[in-house]
Structures are given as structure tokens and as C-alpha cells.
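Progress report, Aim 2. The chain analyzed during this reporting quarter is listed below.
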Amino acid sequence: MSALPNELSPPVVPDRRDADLARVSSRLLATCIGDGPTARLRVIDGDQEIIEVPVPALRMLVDILANMAEGNAVSIVPIHAVLTTQEAADFLGVSRPYLVGVLERGELPHHKAGTHRRIYFRDLLAYRTAQMGQSQTALDALAEQAQKLGLGY
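Predicted C-alpha cells for the chain:
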């Protein structure tokens, strides 16, 4: 990856061959994940080398490959990345005008670069986590109410 710290890497959309290869390699790599803090892998490409990889990085690679195997576009976003409102809206799966409203209500921290709003990815993750928690709480309350009313679902 040659992305600068504040740049997003362009999404990688796998073709059929890449997806098939990702499916096989994700399964093989998953078996390499042990209990220790690192895993040792042998790379055979020109010179044979053994490299030591942090297990969390190996888990991320398995996740990336699994997503590619399903044909999903994959992009890596550094936690300290700065996103535009459109990038943040795309990440959340909402419209940009909706996201701007969230920003203007103060529900999500942001700053301005000139006249443009910018959002730190770490703040966007925290917002999404909080929203998912609120959604789960609401769903639990609805399920409990349905059970009390004997609605049968």
C-alpha cells in the first residue's frame, strides 16, 4: 500500500480469478493462526524467506481475502484517516445530506478544512458503534414487548 497516512487506499474489486484464489488462500491462512502473538510464514517467490507476521495482521489478511472471495470490494482505512462527508456517508451507508445533518446536530465530531467538513475515521467508528448499540437496545425492547403481548414472533 502506498497510501499516505491521511489517504484512503482505492478499493480493490476482485475479478473471478482473484475471488477464487482468495477463497482458497483465506482458508489456508486461517489455519496458520495460532495462539501466539506472531505467525511464521514461508514465502516462495524468487528467494525462499520465512517472515514473522503479527497475528492481528494475519487475521486482517484472512478477513480481506474472505471478503474478496465473496466478490466484495476491499479498502484499508487507517484509524487516523480524515474523511470527506461523502466518504463518511458511504461508510455508514447513508446519504451525504443526512450525514451533514448529523454533523450539524453535533452527534458526530468533525472539523473544517477551509469550508469543507472533515471527519476523523476513529470518530466515525465510535459513532457507528454507538448507533449499532442503540439499534440493538431498541430491537431488544421491541422483542420483549412482542413476547409480553404474545404476538408469537
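The mean pLDDT is 89. The chain has two domains: 16-69, 82-148. These observations will guide the mutagenesis work planned for the next reporting period.
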